[in-house]
C-alpha cells in the first residue's frame, strides 16, 4: 500500500514537472511557446535598436507600449528600479496567463528562456528579440501577483515599409 502511494506521488510529481516545463516555455524540448507570432530569439550582432524598459514597484513598465517594425531585432534593456524582483517576458496573452498561474504555484521558478529575463532590484537584464510578424506581442512581469496587478505591456509590430525586411 505504502509503495503504491509513493509510486503515485512520484508519477504525479513527474506529470506536474512536465506540465510545469511546458507552461514555463522550457526550450529544452524545442518548445516555441506554441505561437511563432511572437517572433524568435534575435542575433545580438543584428540588433536594429535598443529599447530601455523600466520595471517599477508600482507594478508598471515604462514604456508600456512599444512600436517596432516587422523584421526588426530589438535589444530590450530591462531595468529594475524597484526593491523587489521583476521580470519581462514576451508572449501571447494565453502563454502569459498560463505562465503567471504557474509562477503563483511555483514562485521560486527560474527562467532560461530567450523571451524572458528576471532582474533583481537595482540590476539590468536584456532580451534580444526578432519580430517576424506584424501584430501585437504582449509582455508582462510574471512574478507572483505582479501580472495580475497590471504589470504588463505590448509591442505593436508594424508591417515593414517597402525596402525593409
Notes on the structure:
There is one protein chain. With 165 residues, the chain is an alpha+beta fold. It has a single domain (34-158), classed as Immunoglobulin-like (Sandwich). Helix content is 21%, strand content 34%. The protein is built from two helices and ten strands; from the N terminus they run αββββββαββββ. The strands form two sheets. Strands 1-8-5-2-3 form a five-stranded mixed β-sheet, with no helix packed on it. It has a five-stranded mixed β-sheet with strand order 4-10-9-6-7, with helices on one face. A hairpin with a 3-residue loop joins strand 2 and strand 3. The longest helix is centred in the N-terminal third of the chain and has 22 residues, at 2-23. The N and C termini lie far apart (63 Å). Residues 2-34 have low confidence and may be disordered. Residues 1-23 form the signal peptide.
Strand order of the largest sheet: 1-8-5-2-3
**Shape, please?**
globular
C-alpha termini separation: 63 Å
- Sequence of secondary-structure elements: HEEEEEEHEEEE
Number of helices: 2
The Rg value, from CA coordinates, equals 17 Å
Q: State the helicity in percent bands.
A: 10-25%
Which percent range describes the beta-strand content? 25-35%
The assigned CATH architecture is Sandwich
Average pLDDT confidence is 81
What's the CATH superfamily, by name? Cupredoxins -  blue copper proteins
Low-confidence stretches: 2-34
Subcellular location: Periplasm
Signal peptide: 1-23
Main location: periplasm
Organism: Ralstonia flaminis
SSE diagram, text form:
Elements: H1 2-23, E1 40-41, E2 49-56, E3 60-62, E4 65-69, E5 73-80, E6 86-91, H2 93-105, E7 116-119, E8 124-130, E9 135-140, E10 152-158
Parallel strand pairs: 2-5, 4-10
Antiparallel strand pairs: 1-8, 2-3, 5-8, 6-7, 6-9, 9-10
